[in-house]
Amino acid sequence: MEAAEELFPEANWQRCTVHCYCNVFSHVPSGKVAEVARMLKAIHAQEDGQAAADKVKEVIAKLRAMKLPKAAELLETSADETRTYYRFPSNHWRQLRTNNPMERIIRESRRRTRVMRAFPDGISALMLVAARLRHIAATKWGTRRYLGMETLLKPVSQTQAA
């Protein structure tokens, strides 16, 4: 995150909603996780950013009423980071809420490096990961389009009218 801030100071940080949920659940007793999950999902199911902000306040109040102050505090500090995607065209919201494609690549690289157990040096590990990334780029999986950039390049008024 720090490196990205230095390179792209004007960029907005979008935290993965799933990771935020997991962090909140770590402060919730197992018997209440399902109820809290429904409340958190309701935040990200709103029709616009303002409605989501209002829902965050409502959920924080409910968490405090349920005597879950740590979960409420965590949501209060991290909720804004999970709602950055509302600033983009609505047809991109689903893709921007999580970072699943990148996580899939990282998980695959981790799995392959774990098989090797030990590398003679860092360059060997880097070569293995680079080979995997080249394979992904060269196969059908690498040609799948996760997010079309055309609508992001249009002025906001045109994308909302479409």
SSE layout and pairing:
Elements: H1 2-7, H2 17-25, H3 33-43, H4 49-65, H5 69-82, H6 93-96, H7 100-116, H8 122-138, H9 140-143, H10 150-153, H11 156-161
Helix pairs in contact: 2-5, 3-4, 4-5, 7-8
Describe the structure in your own words.
With 162 residues, the protein is mainly alpha-helical. The chain folds into two domains: 2-93; 99-153, no CATH class. It contains eleven helices and no strands. The protein is globular, with a radius of gyration of 19 Å.
List the secondary-structure elements in sequence, H or E. Answer: HHHHHHHHHHH
* Helix run count: 11
Strand content: under 5%
Shape: globular
Biggest beta-sheet profile: none
User: Which structural class fits the helix and strand makeup?
Assistant: mainly alpha
Overall pLDDT metric: 79
Helix content: 55-70%
**Spatial extent as radius of gyration:** 19 Å
How far apart, in Å, are the first and last alpha carbons? 33 Å
Give the beta-strand count.
0
